[in-house]
Structure formats: structure tokens, C-alpha cells
Protein 1
Amino acid sequence: MKFLHTSDWHLGRQFHNVSLIDDQDVVLQQVVDYVRQYSVDAVVVAGDIYDRSVPPTQAILLLNRVITQLCQELSTPVIMIPGNHDGAARLGFGAEQMRGAGLHIISDFSQMLEPVVIHTDDAGEVAFYGMPYSDPEQVRHELHASVSTHDEAHQHLCELISRQFNSSQRHVLISHCFVDGAMESESERPLSIGGSDRVNHQHFLGFDYVALGHLHQPQFKGAEYIRYSGSLMKYSFSEQHQKKGMNLVEIDRDGFVGTTFIPLKAPHEMRIIEGELQAIIDSAKDDPRPEDYLLVRLTDTHAILDPMDKLRSVYPNVLHLEKPGMLIGIDQEMRSQRLKRSELDMFKDFFHEAHQVPLTDEQEQAVMDVIQALKHGEEQ
Amino acid sequence: MKFLHTSDWHLGRQFHNVSLIDDQDVVLQQVVDYVRQYSVDAVVVAGDIYDRSVPPTQAILLLNRVITQLCQELSTPVIMIPGNHDGAARLGFGAEQMRGAGLHIISDFSQMLEPVVIHTDDAGEVAFYGMPYSDPEQVRHELHASVSTHDEAHQHLCELISRQFNSSQRHVLISHCFVDGAMESESERPLSIGGSDRVNHQHFLGFDYVALGHLHQPQFKGAEYIRYSGSLMKYSFSEQHQKKGMNLVEIDRDGFVGTTFIPLKAPHEMRIIEGELQAIIDSAKDDPRPEDYLLVRLTDTHAILDPMDKLRSVYPNVLHLEKPGMLIGIDQEMRSQRLKRSELDMFKDFFHEAHQVPLTDEQEQAVMDVIQALKHGEEQ
């Protein structure tokens, strides 16, 4: 059996104040076209369907069209989980009513424990377990589990799921998380501020395939079958050299066979162009893709009048302008200031931010003692 | 065949800063209990399911529970349309996928023309046509129809629907509109500011039953089978004497048989209490419903310290306080000022508000001429 694994659609995302909805529409049609041409047994979306919990109407209409094409026209089941950008309750409305039509939105823990089972000739029954994105507090609260990190939460959820395993079935997990050691991109939103959001891939070893979402770069981690598809398209300029696409996953009666990466092509690429203004303008006429979304980094060191207007006369979609040549001095100064800040200084800032009052002398001494004791411990 | 007609649930509504979600939950359970006990062939909700286009999560979860009880547990089809408070695209997500499970959310004009047909032994096929709430601009734009008022829009939509009529079926319309001559309540939001929002009931005469939403008072208009169920519960103090409930509609092979009004009972009534502070407090001990949501109108004419605190010691849910006794003087003064304002004064205020500059002398003269000409015309 074959299924498509995709994730991080982020429908409704804005990029430097430009709506990407038309680009997303074009790329999703490539997903639909692939299913139409080759036919697969299921399409999996591993979270961050929308870019925010209350998505704009255009994003809802687009998802509705795509879902109807896949489930209704092409009779292909779609299995999705909410990611950290989605509102689980909002995305999950009507999930119970949609199942019969082959649309499986797994948005709570009770649904997580009832796999979507797909019957195939060549691989028998394949059970898809979806783990709706949830922070450790939710897992602790809703499942009365003593977990305090993302890692512990995932370990607990994987244990719950593995108790449901039916040995006559193959087992696929869908999860939205940050596997420890995997590569980040700039366009992801951290799952946890301050605390650790990393999850050990060991928890996932018992599955035949793990369809991951959250990280925007396609990659596997720990084992070839624990894999990120990466995002639908590029969502930051720093991803300019990444390939975007989806995983075609093949499973047989013995489990994981392999994946094939199916590239997806956005109508506008995201690119960074660096150079002096006049040189960039001069060479634009030979650029085969002048409509791309561009970040232009000007290396001119003198002041320039209206550089954006001049650039847009040849590159209409310049979205951001940087002038590093003029900022070198400032940048270096800021960096050296940051390096000088001690642990005590950072804690003082944090305390002040949290309590609206500064540390007393006594408290400051106590914190200094703790820091010194810790440092002393580290050195031993 | 019998079906329940209800409307204007307004899930997620706040009332004087108090969330009504728990009250709405209790009342909706009465709807579910009725279906469980007596079993009906369908439940119709004629718009304003939610109180706003982006409802709070609690409202989504409540609707999800109710829908799952009705459609899944009780296998009773639910047919709903968006009202002027709902976001049609948002409410309609996944509609295509939900139909098979008996949840019919009719949120666009193409769905409007494909009725939900329910097969019954005693009435044959009953076709439910849902008209999603839409203003004349939408009808004009999406259906290329030359309509400019709500009345013309409804006439056009009814004509489109009646072309789909199958003479072997009974025909039920679900619409969210203001039928001309029907009674308003204070808690409705006008459908149109300035323009006319009234619809002639004549357009509806060709249906066997018309399940209306928008007006919060149960009533029929034009014919016994053109009927509002009224809102799920009271949403303003001025509705204190209204009965709230739903219509049990009976249809046979020959069409409309009749309706029975099934009362729904909110856990807190909404009441207005009027009197002097001390008298209200004294008689509270004999009040059988001290937990009701109250508007208290104090008739004391002297100043009172902390009247709200004193009242809440006996009536914990006093939500609003009025002191007409102390305002009589002011009120009368304002009213007489208002009466003295001429058309010219009102136009000057409007112009200033709209343009941020006063009328010039020349403009003022021109407006006076127009007003005088109009008055002259009226008198003839």
C-alpha cells in the first residue's frame, strides 16, 4: 500500500504582508493531481493545516475545496491532526460526522486511541494513529499523567497507543513534534518558550512508519521510517535552498518498504539576491524568474534614494530589503553587549519582568550563591 | 412525519458580561431529550447557530456534542442554515463530508438547490430547502440577479427553489429573514442599516411549511405554516414575558397538518424587578427564584451607597441596575431638547460627523432650500 505524507500547510499564512493563499492553492492542486494520476490509499497531513487557530475565510474555503476533491471526487481518505498552529477544537468540529466520508480529523485523545484502519490487498490492515498536538500540561491534565516535558508526554502517549496495537496490523503514527537532533528552519514557531520541546525518537521505534510534522525541512531522524515531509512550500527566505514536497510511503505486510520524495513546485520561489543596487538592476533582464518573492540585500555603503521603488521596477515582488553594508557597525556593537551579560543579569531581568519589582539585595545574594554553587558543580 | 423546528441558538452569547454557555447547554439537552423520548424525523435550525462568525471554543465544543448526540447516538438528521450572526464559510466547512452522517449544513446557493430529502412512511418524501442567510449584494453578485432589497432577493431565491420542486414531494423551506409585519424583540441585530430588511410573506406561500429564524419571538405571519420558532432562550430583559421553545411540525401526504409548541426552560429566567431598594431586599426572602438574571429598576429618588452590593447579597445574579427615579429630571430635559431639533440641525450634525468639517453658509442655504422644497411638496 502507498500513502502520501505531507504536513505544515499553514493555509492563510502571510509572508511579508503578502497573502500566500493563491500560491498554496496552486501547490495543493499538485497534491490533488498526484492522487488523481497515481491513486494512493490515503493522504496524511501531520499538523499545521492552518497558520493560526482562527484562520481567514479564504483558507477555510481552500481547505474545503481540497478535502472535497480528495475525499469525494477521488474517494481517497484524508487523515489529519492539528499542529501547534491549529486550534484543535475548531479544526475538529464535526469530526465524528466526517469520518464516514473518509475525512479523519483526529483532534482529541479518545480519537487518538481509535486508529483509522485502511484495508489493502498487499499490506493487509494498516492502522493510522494520530496524535493531536498537545503540550505537556494538556497531557498531564486530560490524561492524569505525571509528565512535565514534551519528551515525557510523547513517551506516555506512545505507550497508550502501543497498548492498542493489533499484531495483525501495520502501525503508522502521525505526530507533530520536534525530534531531538533534527534540523530547524526559520519559519517554525517554537513549541515551548524556555523549556525543552525536544522529543527522543526512541519512543517511535515500535511503529512501522512515523509521519512527522512541525519541522519545515524534509528529513528523517533516528531511523529511515521516522520522517518529516517538510512544509508545503517555503515560508522563509532562509529556506531558499530547501527542496519542498511530500513523502510517498510504501508499506507491505512486513512493514516499512521505503519512501519516495515527490517535489512540489510553488509558483513563486523565495530567493535572496545580494549585491549593489545598480548591478542587481542591470542583471535583472537576464533573470528567468523576475516574479519570484525576493529579499534583496544591498551591499552599497552609501545612502540610496528609494531603493525599493527602483528594485520593484524590475523585480515586482521584492518583499524585503536589507542593507548590511550600512549596519555592520551597529550589529557588532549589539552582539558584544549581549555577550557581556551574565547569568545574574539575565535572571534579574527575568525576575523584574515576571514580578514587576527588582530583586532585593538579599535575594540577589541568594541567586548569586545558587549560580556559583551550580558553576562549581559543573566544574567538578 | 414530524420534525422539530428551532432557531437562533446564539451559542457563545454573552449577556451583560456573563457567559450563557452553561444555560445554553442545559436548554439544548432538553432538545436532545425530547428527540430521545419521542423521536422525530429531523431537527431543523433556522440560523444564528452561533452568536458571531468566529465563535468561542466553548460554543464549538457544545455544538459538536449536541450534533453528535442527535446525528450519531439518535440517528436523527439535523438540517441547519447560517444566519446573519454566523460566518457561512466557517460554519459550512466539511459540509460535503458530513452529509452522509445526517448533518446538513447548507451554507451556499448550490447546496440550497439540492434539497435534503427525508423519506417517511406517512408523508412520503419531504424535501428540505435551506436558504443560507445572505444580503441582497451577495445574491446579486453570486447569482447575477438584479436584486437590491432583501425582499427582491428572497423572491428571486424562492423562484429558483420552486423550479426544483418535485410534485411527488412535500416542500419545506428554511430561511433566516425578517417577514414584513412580524414582531421584533430587542435582542436581534438588524439585517440592514438604513435600507429595508423586510420580506413579503407571499414569496413563501408555495411551500408546505416555512421554518423561519431571525426574530426571537415565536409567531407565525401570513399563514399558519410560515412560522418563527423564536430563540432558544431569552436574550434580553425585554423578553421576560415571552415563551421560548421550539415547533413540533407535522406534515402528511397532503402537506401541512399543524404545529405544537414545545416549551424550553432556561435554568435562569431573565426578569425585571422594579421598586425601592429596601422593599426589594425585604421581599427577596419570599422569591422562589433568587438565582434568576435580574435587571433591577430602583425607584428611590435619593442617592444610595453601593446599591449593587446590597442587591447581590440577596439576588446574586443582578446583572444590570437602572435608577429611573433619579433620572426623571434629566430625561425630560433631554427629550424636550431632542424635540426642538430641526431637520437642518440633524443634517448639520450628520455632515459634520461624516466629513469632519461644518457646512459652509452656502451649503447650509442649499440644504435649507431642499428641506423647504420637500416640506412644501409634502403639504400639497
Protein 2
Amino acid sequence: MSPVTTRRPPTKGLGDLLLDLLAFPSVTGQEQAIAAWLVERYRTRGEAVRRIGDSVVAGEPRAGLPTVLLVGHTDVVPFASGDGAAHRDGGRIVGRGASDMKAGLAVAMDCFEDPALRAGRFGVLLVAYAREEGPHEDNELGALLDRVDLLRSADLAVVLEPTDLEVQLGCMGALHAELRFGGRAAHSARPWHGENALSKAWPLLRELHERSLTEVEVDGLVYREVLVPTQAGTRNARNVVPDRFDINLNYRFAPDKTLAEATADVGSFVGERAEIRVVDRAPAGRPYRENPLVAAFLAAAGAPIAPKQAWTDVARFSALGVPALNYGPGLTAQAHQAGEYVPEANLATARAALARFLST
Amino acid sequence: MSPVTTRRPPTKGLGDLLLDLLAFPSVTGQEQAIAAWLVERYRTRGEAVRRIGDSVVAGEPRAGLPTVLLVGHTDVVPFASGDGAAHRDGGRIVGRGASDMKAGLAVAMDCFEDPALRAGRFGVLLVAYAREEGPHEDNELGALLDRVDLLRSADLAVVLEPTDLEVQLGCMGALHAELRFGGRAAHSARPWHGENALSKAWPLLRELHERSLTEVEVDGLVYREVLVPTQAGTRNARNVVPDRFDINLNYRFAPDKTLAEATADVGSFVGERAEIRVVDRAPAGRPYRENPLVAAFLAAAGAPIAPKQAWTDVARFSALGVPALNYGPGLTAQAHQAGEYVPEANLATARAALARFLST
């Protein structure tokens, strides 16, 4: 790994910057203040700044050079009881959003604000967006990508979600299907007059229970496809043979499948056994491992490489043909936990990796 | 069948009496007016009358003679849209509660009011009680049996619920058990970190689905025991491996079992697979077929004999050692139906059968 030179000690400044970010509560839907602070911070520094909703894009492409986006969301999940003001505790920085993902946002900002890195081989833009932790349709990254053309022509997006300092490539697609089993109601004292929609679901539940996960290799990375029943319910009175039983089936599919292919998978699994209604679906993100910039990032970061076994916003970039990867200082196990923290040393490690990529 | 003599034509009077009863809406909880009308009717006639809540007991035991109770509830289920005023329509009497069970109450009253029958071989009491169609704990027959000693020392209770003019002996017991399957929560993208409480229920659902009903012969009558899952549900979010899945299991058991034995049956069926909480239970009613008064009723009625494949209030009498049977003019298929009716001819048939029993 090559040494990195910046004009200030990154660890000290990074921890303080993270504490500044954590001082904004910025629970999903309440990102106005942090957005205004970011706009002011970068206007003052003479950057090009766009604000759309409560999301901010700072910086500009540089003619003739590839564009790299440093991407983070500004919102956090609601505070747990006992969550207090952010603070240092030994080697940790504690606070709601410390790992998910203000640590990543601090690293992105610190690199973006470093003239040496900005003078390197890329045009670097900072993308700080709102509403990631809420419903999918409210996530402002969608609106940003719709409305800011230069994001769609970027050459690489680095999404700094918590990854335990691994480079996590691609992401799983996610689909929810409501399965409705039909039957015929009857008084439960005379069930032979009806057909029980609940108990007739047993073969499907058995297949789901005994099904092993499917390992799918894409670009040399192994993604684990899973088909999981997550909710179920009836709607009849207690003394009635149920004429309806609904199961929510969650399919997490590998990046080699389109949404249409994933939907077809569910259809062929369920067959004629139940009515199927797909209620929510998010595409997978490609790993782009063979992409030259992704390869360069992997070489510079020197970090473990893993497939992303969940959905992240890299899928939005992937859907537009923009290569994207997940890399961040946060701990995945700390995301959404009460007493959330990030090891302060992770900030410096992530910053150094990103700086190597941007400067070498 | 022996001819029956009464002092007025029973069919005409009975139909009019039923229309009088149907003129009170008396939906469960609104039986005040019909109760007051019954009290006034029998006080005027010089009968001994007790009112407890909205329930009425009329008549007295006769020294040295067995006591027979003629039992009916005064309430009806809520009116359906389109239910209008009660009326005759050809050979039918139409109205909310016509079959369930004001037809039975009319027959009971008409017999009770017949001096020839009252002078026969029994002491005859009329029991018109409230709140049968609502929750079990509100049913006023329970309070009546607690507070009116002479009911507990009766020799036979004839419950005039709709039975299609069959004598339906005994009744099934009913028990509801909440089965709770436990698991371990995890993100649904990584189900291998958890244990799915929903899909692990498949073996139990399979056994329930494939289970045939169990025919149990008691006193020469065949009751059909059934174990039916009637409700099910999870409580977690859509992207979570469920750590809990609840099934409501309804057990309808034959009159040869006590509540404790029925509870043990459920326990041995479920075993260690789920936690069991019994949430509602009603004992079965014995058929009492060998009881001399029941045998006399069967001989006098000349009606088809059948087991009662549901729970009725005969179980309350049975639990106190008072022989009881179900016999009434209403149609079971009309109970709780929109446009409920009873064939007017059924009133005369039931009255004649009851009169033969009371007088011969």
C-alpha cells in the first residue's frame, strides 16, 4: 500500500467531523438542517452545490477525466430509548447513525474536501442524500438520479454504507410476493363442509422450510439466493374454517437476474397453489468486478472483497449502467442498534483506502 | 303417534304468537322489552315469575312430580341489511330469529300456557333467557343456573334451539388453544442467522390437514370429533425471519370426554412443537339416552334422533347433572341467515311432539 499525504492529520479531523454530523439528529424526514449545513459549508468553499429536496450534490466533473461519486445518506433510523448525545468512548464514537452511515459520510466529505485528492486523476463529486431509511419510494437518491444528469454519466459510484471495511460488490435484488391460498368457509364444528386454506398451505411451507439456499456465482463472487416466508395471516372468526390464508414471501436474488426473471422464479415455485401478487420489488446490483475503475479500487483499497448479501442503493446506479460498489468504515452489526458506535480507527482506514484510489 | 287435544287450534295461535315475539327486535343486549313483556304476560296470568337480568323463569315445581324445563333464548343476532318487519310469506314466517330460536320459544310458551299440559304428569317451567348469541361469559343462562336453585334440581331440560325437528342429543365440547411456534429473528436476506417459526409449523399443519375426523360413539350416537386450525398469524416486519407464529386450534370433542381430557388430547397432539394456551373452553353435553325421561321424550316425539354436532346450552345443564336434550321447530340452515324463516307447519309439529311427551 502506498503512503498517503494529506494536509492535516486525518484521524483527529475525521472523528471531529463525524461528531459534527452526529450533532444533527436527522432522523428520516428531518434532514432539512443537515442539508442546509452542507449547502452552506460547500457554498462557502466555492464549490458548485445543488440542493434537491433535502439532498445535496457538491462538486463538478472535470473535463477529460472520469467522474467518481462519493455517496452517503444523511438520515438515521429513529433514536432508541437511552440514545443520548454523540460522544467519544475510548476508541469508539457512539451515536445514532455512527456506523450507518455518518462514518461513511464523514470519510466521503473529508476526501472531497482534500485539495490533493481533488487534484488527482478524477472529477470527484459528493452526493449526500435524504430518506434512505424510510420507504423505498421516498428515498431521494431516486429523484437525484432522475434530475441531475451528470450523476447518470458518472464512471463510478462509491457508496459508503457500513461494510466492515470490506469492499462489498453488487447487491441482491429483493422482491416481496403476497401468496393467497383459497379455501371454502364452514363452521369449524363441521369442517367437512369447507376447505381449510390454512392447513392446505403445508406442502409449500415444507418446501420453503427444507429448501437450502442457492449459491450463485457472479464475477467470481458467490451470492446466496433465499426464498423466505416472513409473514402469514388469516382473516376469519375463530370458529370458522378459513377460506383465505396469506403468506408474504421474500425473495432475495442474485445480480445475474432481472426483476422479470425473479418474478418468474416465484411463479414457477408457487405454481397453481396460490394467487401471487408482487407487492414490492427492487432490482439487484451488478458487481462490475471486471470494470477497470472497480478493479482499480480493489487494488488500491487492499481490503477484503465480498458479495453484498442485501439490497443497497448501488442497485439504482447499476440500473442506470453506472458501476457502483459498497465500501465504508461502519460496522454492519451496529446498524440500527441501540448504543450504535463505530471504531474511530475505521475512519482513518477507510479514508486511507479511498485516498489511495483517488490519488494513485 | 297419539292424537293431541288442546283447547285452541295450535297452528293459528302459534304463528301469531311467533309474530308477536318477532315484533321485539331483541338483538343480543337489547332484551329488556321482551323480558318485561314476558314478566307482565305471566304475572297477569297468576304465574310465579322470577326476572334475573333480562331473563325470565315462569312456573313452579309441582310436589311429587318431575320438573321439566322448556328452555329458549330471547335474543337474536344483529339484523342483516334487507331484514324488514316479520311477516307471513306463504307457508313461512319470515323474520330475524324466526328459526333461531323464537319459533322454539313460541312452542315452549304455547305448551306452558296450556292448562291441559300443565295439569299433566310434570311440573313445567318456562325458562326464557338473554344473551345467548353473544360472548359465552355474558350468556345469562349461566347466571340463572347459579341463582335459581330449582333449575338445578330439574329432571329434564328441553332446549328448543333449531334442530330441524330432530331430537339432537348431547352436544360437542369446544376448546380453543393458541399454539405459539417459536423461532429466532434475523434479517430475511440472511435467514441462516435465524430460525423460521412460520415454515417450521409445516409438520403440524400437515397432520391437521391429513387428519380424518374421529367418529366417537356415545349411547349409540356417533359424534364427529374434529381438530381444526382456524386462525394463524405472525407479528414481525416484512423483511424479518419470523420468531413467532401463532395458530388457533379449535377442538370439538365428543360427550365422553371431560374438558381436562380434551385439553390433554391437544397437549399430546401438539407435544413439544409449540407452546399451548387454552383460551376458551366449553364442556360437552351428555346424550342421556338411557335416562327414563329422555327415553320417554324420544318415544313420544317420534322424531329422528341425531347427535348434536355443535355446542349448545344443554352442556350447562349436563355439567350440573340435569339431563337435557335439543329439540326445536327451527331450521338449522336458517340460523343467522339474511331473510331467516321457519315453515309455519314446523311449529305445529313441534308443539304436538312436546304435548305428547308432557301429557302421556
